[in-house]
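Sample intake sheet
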Amino acid sequence: MANRVYTIGHSTRTFDEVLSMLQKHEITDLVDVRSFPASRTNPQWNQDAIVDALPSAIRYRWIRELGGRRHTPKGVESVNTAWRVKAFRDYADHMMSSEFSQGLGKLLGLAAHGRPVILCSEAVPWRCHRRLITDALIVAGTDVLHIMSATAAKPASLNENAVVRNGRITYPAA
């Protein structure tokens, strides 16, 4: 059986609402993939609040290397031009870095021994950098499920623009 990683976006949900979803899906590790693990508008999603509120059966991890809000330096040409949204294109560029590889390795290690979920703020995965992390996980042979509710998890598939060569993903324009 392949390793499995889940994804979830906290959005404006209450902590208890998300915790119920995590428990229903038997999550063992909550992996924060926000560059800045805090929320001005939803303080229940600040790093300290999460750590204090999580039951001992679910461990909190922050993998900074997988955080979003990446910026490709000016003058550096991107090979990921299929992404029209600059934030996604910049994150795809970050995915080619050793920093990203290190973070992905940490996440894959958790998946080998538990049932991790990656957490970000955006409710739907297709509007979040979780969709790109998902592609890297799929290429690494990991099953990915997006938690949509306490009873529904949607299987992920590789982005239609992804090109995989030697285990590396790019998103070139057609």
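Comment: The chain has one domain: 4-170. The chain has a mean pLDDT of 97.
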